[in-house]
Amino acid sequence: MDNLWREDEARSLEGIDLLVYRSRLIGRDSRLVLWGGGNTSLKHDETDFRGRSVRVMRIKGSGTDLKSIGPEGFPGIRLDDLEPLLERQAMEDQEMVDYLVRCLVDPGSLRPSIETLLHGFLPFPHVDHTHADAVLALTNTVDGRRHVREVYGEESAWVPYRRPGFLLSRQVADAVRSAPKARGVVLEKHGLITWGGTARESYETTIAMNTRAEEHARDRARGRVVFGGMAVPAIDPAARRRVVTRLAPPLRGRLARGAGGEARRPVVLKFDDADDILEFIGSEAGPQLALAGPATPDHLMYTRPRPLVARIPPGADLRTEEGIAALGKSLAADFDKYNDWYALYVRKHTAGPATAAGPGPAADLDPRVILIPGVGLLAAGRDGRRAAMVAEIYHHTIAVLRAASGLGTYESLALKDCFDIETWPLEIYRMSLAPPGRDLSGRVALVTGAAGGIGRAIARRFAAEGCHVAVTDRDEPGARALADELGSAHGPGRAFATRLDVADEADVRRAFDQTILAWGGIDIVVSNAGFAHAAPVDRMALADWEKSFAVNATGHFLVARETLRILKDQNTGGTLIVNASKNVLAPGKDFAAYSAAKAAATQLARIVAIEGGEHGIRANILNPDAVFQDSALWSAEVREERARAHGIAPGDLEEFYRKRNLLRTRVTAEDVAEAALWLASDRSAKTTGCILTIDGGVREGFPR
Ligand code: ZN
Q1: Which of 18, 27, 328, 351 is deepest in the core (most CB within 10 A)?
Q2: Which of 466, 501, 499 is CA-nearest to residue 482?
Q3: How far does the centroid of ligand 1 lie from the alpha carbon of residue 351, in Å?
Q4: From residue 649, how far is each of 587, 590, 632 by CA, in Å?
């Protein structure tokens, strides 16, 4: 474990700034703390609003993350108000939370961590609390206390497992009082508390104690085969991806529907086939060990009490379509079993009559982690970010399992303690500290022709509404630039770019597969890519006619076909939006190749609406007119042709179109994006087979 402290960086810092520095050093190493986990504190004197000097503890706020925390992430607690609690014998959670809010220096600050009293009851100015893999390997091994003693001797105090709260904090304070030589407290199935007279001392003790645990586990594991030999070797990477592109959509659909079948909650699946995952889940011992349970409450809240471990049907060759189909069938059965197991777990641990309507997790009987031997892991989350966290936490679960198995026999958090945490209001509150859902939160969209004009405006609008967007275009650099923009605006993992020629069957398939690999499925497809060509019929070359049909008709067909296949497999409805043109209803002179092909696309969309209806799949048509804004469609050539057709100068074209519509208005790409958003969202749930005009009102173009 590396000591990242740099005196040249730290020297000029003091107070909260130094606390921020130290906290970020800890947060930077995921072997020390998981997402949002762990906490740090500082006790010092501050001047209050009346100019008095008061003793204040700065403690990490609930819902913050150590690796990115800033000064505002540390609410202040008046120690003179907090310390009298040490005289109490017990305190209910809610009472404790209410009490701590009253101790806040600034009433408007974040709620302090639910582990505040762990820090507050210790007499040290700097306290670190980590949930490090290395320490968990010691505490999550049968006879963990003996391992801890072997490593630290009298330098650590031991506190048996108890849910965080008042009593655990008291116990820690008592343990420290009766262990004068202790430099840290080891919390069973939870983590480590360390401290120091200075920020640096506290941090370096954290690193030193974790390093000792790490070295001990490494020494003991030497020469031992921890997970047994390989039982199911990994298939090759391309074959693994093929399995995921076939099986992820139905899995995602099932997770979105919930065990009762009626819920519709957003779910994104993250596929991960890193070596440690393939090695663990393909090993002799892996599948059994995976069912052993989570290491700590923190792991539990992301990965649930156990993952779903898929059985590979005997004789199934996952490199073949038959093998994948057989796995799909057995996976559905394994999912049923998981739901049954979870319902049993809830019934067993719910006090009172056995009903499914217990508190907290009862309504959600589904796994967050799905392990497929030979293939990899699928992690489920309400969005891509959360799914990535779940996957990352499972890597740490494997690291703890490996180290603990090297020391002896792994021992998890007990199931009754899991249930206790899963239904604990304070933990549910902590997990709920996420931005509220937007219209398309957790949804996945693929947009064709997204590098410019209308496509780009739609991709931007969808992403701003919480959607994950596959940005596809023949212009790959343009697509990449937009995906990068969306990633920096809304977080990494919210968009990716891929080159796509919609007229190329294999390319269309590949772009959809890539989307499934990124997020597990698809909900919205905007078939937008288009190509305009202007020429009078008697002078049109066959090649130009065919080129227009390849993109403006066949392109929509290839995209619609893939959309229907995936949406039916996923079985959660979904929506196709075809960008047609006012020309479909009000064709213009010299625009035969374009208008005729777009008419074909319109008819295709209506038939998708007819065929998709029974599956809850909607298909609608956008008819924009005269959207010039950075549009690839309106090339200089097309502008000239259109101007000539209307008998005006090319420079007057936009003004001509503006004056032609009933509202005398200029139609923008953002106007079209707004219409696309409505058609994509549940707010248009009862609308299918419809043409929506965004043209400022063109009488000849009224749908009829
Ligand atoms: Zn903790």
Answers
A1: 27
A2: 499
A3: 26
A4: 21, 17, 20
Give 290's contacts (C-beta < 8 A, 6+ positions apart): 280, 281, 306, 307, 309, 371, 401
Tell me the catalytic residues. Answer: 594
Residue of 645 and 381 predicted with greater confidence: 381
**How many beta carbons lie within 10 A of that of residue 278, not counting itself?**
24
- Quote the Cα angle for 4-7-8, to 5°: 110
Own/partner long-range contacts of 150-155 (Cβ < 8 Å, ≥24 apart): 150/216, 151/212, 151/213, 151/216, 152/183, 152/184, 152/186, 152/209, 152/212, 154/179, 154/181, 154/182, 155/181, 155/182, 155/183, 155/184, 155/209
410 versus 361: which is more confidently predicted? 410
**Cβ–Cβ contacts within 10 Å for residue 373, how many?**
23
Measured in Å, residue 72 CA sits from the centre of ligand 1 at 21
pLDDT, residue 310, reads 96
Write the CA distances from 186 to 292, 402, 613, integer angstroms. 22, 20, 59
90 CB burial (10 A radius; 0-12, 13-18, 19+)? exposed
Nearest 5°: CA angle at 625, between 620 and 627? 110
For residue 360, the CA-to-ligand 1 centroid distance in Å is: 21
Using the mean position of ligand 1's atoms as its centre, give its distance from the Cα of residue 286 in Å.
27
Two structure tokens written together for 674 = 């707004």
> What pTM was computed for the model?
0.91
H or E, element range at 451: none
Centroid of ligand 1 to alpha carbon of 73 (angstroms): 17
Å from CA of 307 to ligand 1 middle: 22
Instruction: Quote the tokens at residue 80.
Output: 């003179």
Chain centroid to Cα 153, Å, comes to 42
**pLDDT tens, residue by residue, 452-468:** 899 999 999 999 999 99
